[in-house]
């Protein structure tokens, strides 16, 4: 008998066909609306596996899921998993590393460029019909090439960012990471620094760490004050890795030059959020990995992980505790 799985958001037909080959299944097909938590709990009671992106997978959800063997998220970040609760209920948690690394690095590089050269701001200026109202010099930004990029979190995506920076833009690479990465030092002339030193030296500071207790509000007022007044902060990690209020203040006071953010404390960003009224910020809607090319690969990888787990096998991409 095929296992039964539940998918909590729409999936491409190719991925659905793969799931159909291996499992009985049900899909929540509302793209713009989440399944209410109570209903999701009910659905999971009879499921062997599930794809649950953007849901808190915690004790409340996992209680009474007798059959559940695996939950799969279509993202590399898995901060919505309570890993202790997963362990307690003997459920594998999986994610989708590797397939999105280059894609996220592309977006982050876009944010580096926009933050330095003020692309988002200039776009608003031209679109608003203001071109010519101010001298061009009012919009000068900073060069990207041959300057210093500080990468906080030298994992797989960090490496792809370093590659673009080193070989595409001839930048100097500094990084902050728990462990030394001799291979990155060799390949990209990267230099490992303590956090404070990196913040002082970098022209562009990129955050690409997982959200954990250790990285929660890693960048706050003190850290922003260490940065150069010409520096750009880029967050491609998770919103709570920065103290958002402190970032707003630093942008208002021009403690730093600009910020370019793909992730936020609360998503979608509330319509009255102070970031929306700032000039020196580029905002994207947590879309780092989401392209027409990569989305399907991530979904397929999540489906493969779910199918493996639902059949009682150890999935390929089980998250760390
Ligand atoms: C992920 O997949 O976790 C990232 O947020 C990509 O944007």
UniProtKB/TrEMBL annotation:
Residues 109-288 form the D-isomer specific 2-hydroxyacid dehydrogenase NAD-binding domain. One of its GO terms (molecular function) is glyoxylate reductase (NADPH) activity. It catalyses: glycolate + NADP(+) = glyoxylate + NADPH + H(+); (R)-glycerate + NADP(+) = 3-hydroxypyruvate + NADPH + H(+); (R)-glycerate + NAD(+) = 3-hydroxypyruvate + NADH + H(+). Transmembrane segments: none annotated. Residues 5-320 form the D-isomer specific 2-hydroxyacid dehydrogenase catalytic domain. Keywords: Oxidoreductase. It comes from the Bacteria. It is an enzyme of class 1 (oxidoreductase). Gene3D superfamilies: NAD(P)-binding Rossmann-like Domain. Its EC number is 1.1.1.79, 1.1.1.81. GO terms for cellular component: cytosol. Belongs to the D-isomer specific 2-hydroxyacid dehydrogenase family. GhrB subfamily. PANTHER family: 2-HYDROXYACID DEHYDROGENASE-RELATED, GLYOXYLATE_HYDROXYPYRUVATE REDUCTASE B. This is Glyoxylate/hydroxypyruvate reductase B. It comes from Salicibibacter cibarius. The lineage of its organism: Bacteria, Bacillati, Bacillota, Bacilli, Bacillales.
